Amino acid sequence: MFSHVRQVGAVARIALLGLPSRARMSLAAIFGIALATLVLLGFLAMASGFRSTVAGAGSDQAAIILAEGSPSEFASAIDINRLAQLQNAPGIAHGPGGPLISPENFATISAVDDQGTEANLSLRGMATQGLAVRPLARLAAGRMFAPGSNELVVGASLAARYRDLKLGRSIRLAGMAWKVVGIFDAGGSAAESEVWADRTLVAQFFGSSGAVQSVRVRLANAGALLPLQRYLAAESASKLTARSEKDYFAVQARNMGKLILFIGWPLGIAMAIGALAGALNTMFTSVSARSEEIRTLRILGYRGLPVFLSTMAEAIVLVLIGCAAAISLSLAFLNGRSASTIGGNLSQVMFRFDLGVSDILQSVVVALVVAILGGALPAWRAARRPLAAAPGA
Amino acid sequence: MNMMQTISAPTPLIEISRLSKRYSRGETVVPIFDDLSLSIPCGRFVALMGPSGSGKTTLLNMLAGIDRPSGGMLSIDGERIDRYGEAALAGWRARTLGFIFQFYNLMPMLTAAQNVELPLLLQPMGASERRRRVETALDVVGLADRMKHRPRELSGGQQQRVAIARALVADPKLILADEPTGDLDRPSADRVLEILRLLSSELGKTIVMVTHDPVAARAADLTLHLEKGRFVDEAIAA
Amino acid sequence: MRMSTLVARNALRNPVRLVLMVACIAIAFLIFGVLSAVGAAFRMEDQPGAHERVMIVNRNGLQQTLPIAYLADIRQQPNVAAATPVRLAIAYWREPKDVLSAVMVDPAIYLTLSEDSAVVSAEDRARFVATRDGLLVGQALATRNGWKRGDLVTLQSLNDLRTDGTRSWSFRVAGIYRAAKPGGPELAVAGHYDYFNDALLTGRDRANWIMVQGRDVTANDAMARAIDASYANSAAATRTQSEAALGRAFLSQIGDVVLIIRLVVGAAFLVILCIVGNTLIFMVGERTREIGVLKTLGFSGGRVARIVVGEVALITLAGAAVGMSLALLIVTAVASATKDMLPGLAIGPTTLGIAALLAGGLVLLTGLLPVVKAARLDIVTALGRV
């Protein structure tokens, strides 16, 4: 047993010491696995980042009311005549100006970012309590819009990226100038990718009068959601449902994250298969370059198993180097980088790449699978090669 | 077991009886030899000569347990190695055999001492004991001052002497050499042969050396000639 | 024996390595093929009608609407042959989960403008145009829901309300369309804009976009500029562009994701460039002695180079062919699953052309060093090395 361990150690050491002499092929394998891992990590970080950005937009101290059956705010319509009954609904917190209720609707606007590219952004029309109903949002600069005036309050993510949406600037929307009077912060969540304005103005100028899409309410306490849901269910004519903001965004996040992973995993796996072919190639080359060395050791009395394990060790070391390079690169250059894509309202959502421990572990597992598959066959071949060649061969 | 201890036993170390070997090349079967018998006593230095294709390398490979006979009996130091499996053969080689290659086959990235130490890693042996043995073995081949050198820093003759040290460090009973002087100039070859002689006469090692070189063969106690799978020497041909 | 025999024998001498290299290249082409099919579907590259039809949308995005009054103005434009409003309704039949895509249009004009994608019999066409609450239904959807001509179906809208406070519209199935291309999308429904609009409480008299057929396709750009200029200062400014350009604009909104996908394709090709190139250099090194022999026999440097290039080309083309065939299989399978979300997902001639260029470039890049190495090889050194 003891001598077994020493045998493996000695053979592995010889295999690894010989790596520099096979530098080019080894580097090709490292490069392949590094890029494949990088691609996978990129998608995992994107999915995690997107998920946490969207999921982070929800709090369990607020509820969102939608038309029954509507999957999201963007496919929902609530008759404004039904809003009055919500004033008396149970479970809703009260502020100085009455119950904290904000009927809301969406429009999209077009704005130019710092690079000069035009993109569509979400404009949310809300009541002035809109800020107070959102436990996770706070004004970072300026003030809330005044009711009835063409004023905007912009999410910090957008303000950082769009030149027309900085505090104090004006933007032309629906043929009128709108002034940015405030910047709000929502912990870097997807909510920061919105522009807020007075709902009545949004309804009037962006063609969505007569209905709102959702109603956001601040819950009075932790157990307030259930009475609210019961109240809405009892009013069967209104066909409204309430769920906690947190649950709502968690579901949205899951769906969107799934979409990214649905693209990311097949691509990552395809890249990993390419890297596997590269690793196999390198390891077969390595085994053939080491064939004389392996034969010598076997004639000295070394067994096949240490030869097998040493080749595996070489494959694993190569793959881990590549994987480590990819992880460090993505931690250095990808993690925290902000990007944008299109969200549920067909408008831009800013998010940050977020590389979690589980993402890193998943990529390491994929890399190890490549190492084991890429090492096993060449290693088996190395260990099983006949010691004596047929004469004349 | 002390490597300086002389081993001598009355029984033959190598015993071959009615040994045969055939290779199949696709459809055709190529016989290398058929019904070969031979007995080599302990402590003898035997040179094995013969033209290409005579079967001498095949015989050496079988003595080393790296090729298997098709039939017959092959016993070395009382062990029927023709009946051993892969793993048992590897263990047997580690215990009993030292091997010297024509092209030295040293690991280029290891030092001379580390190369010599390789077979000892197969033995249950502490680090200090291994170092002592390596030093002794390198001393025997006259390279005690080259311990830390890597193969490329050594001449061909020196490399072959490191390989001899590697072959004897585990104190094997049998040393096999495959054209050990084939790649060396005359003075280096002579030095190598002198050491092999010494291993046989002073340490009592049994040595079988395949060679093309009649001068090298003269260093041995006995020369066997193999032709078309048969020994042509009167004394042996049975 | 011909030179090609020598090339083929050479390539086949290490079958495992050959398979691995071909696999490497195939993976890169597979990734390229699938991703560019997706890109091309968004750009509607292989749908000629999409380049001719003009869409007028709200400058603020597809979610925004235009006043229906624009339609009459636009029909006055000299280059406009036909124009129809399109109002999107997000509706469902029985289960809110089974959302279907419904467009409310000017029936006669819409049928004419969609002739390249939907086939409707003359009888159905006449009935759909004449029935105010008529519904034109895709064959696949009709089969799935068991709808027949003459059936009364009630659709529930998710994002629109009626003046009567409800959200349900009843339609009579007036006609059934088939996709012009086999396997094309057949899950949509179309109704009359006027019928839908008359009952609307929310967003009444507005359309999501206006679809226009120009008289002269070459005058479309000028027409687009004229339309956009006339609404530049209105509450609803317009953006007029071809259907294909609209798809492209949508793709660019996905933004960084597209960039990331391009990077992935780039990475895949970089990996194979590196792996295959290295292996080829290694292979030439391994064959040093044989190349020396060939040169001794009188093969010129150029001829030796051609043998090596031939082998590189053989491997690359095999990989490209395998990869693109796999991509074709996968895209065909995915396309039938997503034909209603993303119609036109296919590997078209453009993608195949780029793949051929890529393969050529790959042969040049991976082959360059090994070929130079082989051609320059000195006979004495080649043979001296044993």
What are the defining features of this structure?
heterotrimer; B: alpha/beta; Rossmann fold; 6-stranded mixed β-sheet; C: 386 residues; alpha+beta; 2 domains; 56% helix
Characterization of the model:
The complex is a heterotrimer of chains A (393), B (238) and C (386). By secondary structure, chain A is of the alpha+beta class. Chain A has ten helices and 16 strands. The longest helix of chain A is centred in the last third of the chain and has 45 residues, at 245-289. Chain A is elongated, with a radius of gyration of 30 Å. The two termini of chain A are 37 Å apart. Chain B has one domain (43-68, 85-231): Rossmann fold (3-Layer(aba) Sandwich), CATH 3.40.50.300. Chain B contains seven helices and ten strands. In chain B, α4 (127-140) packs across α5 and α5 runs parallel beside α6. By secondary structure, chain C is α+β, with helices and mostly antiparallel strands. Chain C is built from 15 helices and twelve strands. Chain C has a six-stranded mixed barrel with strand order 3-4-9-6-8-7, surrounded by four helices. In chain C, a hairpin with a 6-residue loop joins β3 (80-92) and β4 (99-105). Chains in contact: A-B, A-C. The interface between A and C is large, with 66 and 61 residues. Chain A: Residues 269-386 form the ABC3 transporter permease C-terminal domain.
Tally of helical segments of chain C: 15
Q: Specify the overall morphology of chain A.
A: elongated
Helicity range of chain C: 55-70%
Q: Please trace the helix and strand order of chain C, writing H or E for each element.
A: HHHEEHEEHEHEHEEEHEEHEHHHHHH
List strands and helices in order, with pairings:
The complex is a heterotrimer of chains A (393), B (238) and C (386).
Chain A: H1 2-17, H2 23-55, E1 62-67, E2 78-79, H3 83-86, E3 94-95, E4 98-99, E5 101-112, E6 118-126, E7 138-142, E8 151-155, H4 156-161, E9 170-173, E10 176-185, E11 194-198, H5 199-205, E12 211-212, E13 214-218, H6 225-234, E14 240-244, H7 245-289, H8 291-299, H9 304-333, E15 338-342, E16 348-352, H10 357-384
Parallel strand pairs in A: 6-11, 8-10
Antiparallel strand pairs in A: 1-13, 1-14, 2-12, 3-4, 5-6, 5-13, 7-10, 8-11, 9-10, 15-16
Helix pairs in contact in A: 1-9, 2-7, 2-9, 2-10, 7-8, 7-10, 9-10
Chain B: E1 12-25, E2 28-41, E3 45-49, H1 56-63, E4 71-76, E5 79-80, H2 86-96, E6 97-100, H3 112-117, H4 127-140, H5 156-168, E7 174-178, H6 186-201, E8 206-210, H7 214-218, E9 222-227, E10 230-231
Parallel strand pairs in B: 3-8, 3-9, 6-7, 7-8
Antiparallel strand pairs in B: 1-2, 1-4, 4-5, 9-10
Chain C: H1 3-12, H2 15-43, H3 48-52, E1 53-58, E2 66-67, H4 69-76, E3 80-92, E4 99-105, H5 107-113, E5 118-119, H6 122-130, E6 134-138, H7 139-145, E7 152-157, E8 168-179, E9 189-192, H8 193-198, E10 206-207, E11 209-214, H9 220-231, E12 238-242, H10 243-254, H11 256-286, H12 288-296, H13 301-338, H14 349-376, H15 379-384
Parallel strand pairs in C: 4-9, 6-8
Antiparallel strand pairs in C: 1-11, 1-12, 2-10, 3-4, 3-7, 3-11, 5-8, 6-9, 7-8
Organism (chain A): Sphingomonas trueperi
Subcellular location (chain A): Cell membrane
Membrane topology (chain A): Multi-pass membrane protein
